[in-house]
Amino acid sequence: MVFLDLRKVALWKIPNSQFPIPTTMLNFNDLKRLKPKTKGIDKSIGDEAVRVTVQALIRLNQTATAISLWPPTTIRTQQSGHYLSAFKGRGMEFDEVRPYQPGDDMRHLDWRVTARTGKVHTKLFREERERSVFLWVDYRAPMFFATRGVFKSVFAARAAALLAWTTHHHNDRVGGFIFSDTLHHELKPQRGKAQVLHFIKQLVEMPDKIAPVQREQIDKESALHALVRLRRVAHPGSLIFLISDFRNLNAQAESHLMQIARHNDVVMLFIYDALENQLPPKGSYRLSDGEGDITLNTANQQLVKNYHNRFMQHKAHLQELAQRHRLLLLHCATTDDPLTQLQHGLGRHHKR
Question: Which domains does the chain possess?
């Protein structure tokens, strides 16, 4: 089943071709042979598959308690300076100064107090009572697309809302970055239900503020700009969720991501649609963006192979990036349930 959103154009470029395919504008009549084979697809898909509502995202509060963001034993050893939990854990804040005791870390000596009193003193630190959780949500044009399940943007909004409610139940601060090719909205971390509701309101309203994007207006560096802003405001020890399909993540963007990951826990939710992985069965398909159309012949096996390889290279690159910088990468298809994916992915990470 193909969903149409005539306001957006999502470009997925076929390798070795002379044109980008505007997949959001897939012509349903010419793609009718694309029969969904993935379980969980509602053949009577309605508006909820292509857009989210405030009411629907509020209802996710009821199930968000099933998600655990970190284990309760998040502590850091004074001797090694490494966190014992699967995540790096919350940041450390200054607590008090006391006289030196055998076994204290020499790096934590307070030389000013020592000089003033004539006795060696040590700084003590404690885990921050609250942690900031940043939700970085991609609303660029390619996210408004799906051939099965729900739009990638809808999946992203639902996952972000679940994580926001979970953070609220942990009594921690929720911060957000929602960005498109032309707009961005930032929410500074705050605690409370009102903050979650404000974030949800932005998730719902921002798509309507995004003007139709022409090909020449696509900002391939919008994700880079959003990472730069995130790096400036993310407090060390924060938990950061990046929710995107991670297109156009260039070397400069990856450099900022590396810097963010040095002092924070980072989880990447990679959202993709089945058609981005594999072209439809052999045949001739007409694709339209509402202004013009092109014909795609999937009988060309080399084109089909190159298309699939391009997706697999993108997927492998994200996996390598995650391993290199110790990030958690979760693969999310548009037919998956966000709650199940977060439970499974975060739960498995905690057990490592």
Answer: 11-70+131-350 (3.40.50.410), 93-127 (no CATH)
Nearest to 270 by CA among 220, 303, 311, 237: 311
- d(CA 122, CA 79) in angstroms, rounded, equals 14
Q: Mean pLDDT, to the nearest integer, of 303-330? A: 94
Angle at 37 between CA 279 and CA 346, to 5 degrees: 90
- For residue 122, report the phi and psi dihedrals to the nearest 5 degrees: -120, 140
3-state secondary structure of 58: helix
Q: Which DSSP letter does residue 234 get?
A: P
Question: Quick check: 22 pLDDT over 50?
Answer: no
- Whether the pLDDT of residue 220 is over 80: the answer is no
Q: Which residue carries 């850091």 as its tokens?
A: 76
Report which residue type is found at 87.
Answer: F
How far is 165 from 64, CA to CA, in rounded Å?
Answer: 6
Residue 203 parent element (H or E): helix 193-209
Among 158-172, 213-227, 276-290, the range scoring the smallest mean pLDDT is 213-227
- In eight-state DSSP terms, residue 284 is E
pLDDT digits (tens, 9 = 90+) for 30-63: 333 333 333 333 444 468 899 999 999 999 999 9
- pTM for this predicted structure: 0.74
- Is residue 178 pLDDT above 50, yes or no? yes
* Residues 6 or more apart whose Cβ sits within 8 Å of residue 93: 125, 126, 127, 128
pLDDT attached to residue 48: 86
The one-character DSSP state at 40 is: T
Nearest alpha carbon to residue 10 among 281, 199, 210, 186: 210
Q: What are phi and psi of 14, to 5 degrees?
A: -75, 130
Q: Which regions of the chain does DSSP assign to beta strands (E)?
A: 11-13, 20-22, 92-99, 121-127, 132-138, 173-179, 184-190, 239-244, 265-272, 284-288, 293-297, 328-333
67 close to 341: Cβ distance less than 8 angstroms: no
What local confidence, expressed as pLDDT, does residue 307 receive?
92
Residues 84-119: tens digit of each pLDDT: 344 554 455 566 788 988 888 888 889 999 999 999
What gap in Å lies between CA 333 and CA 28, rounded to an integer? 21
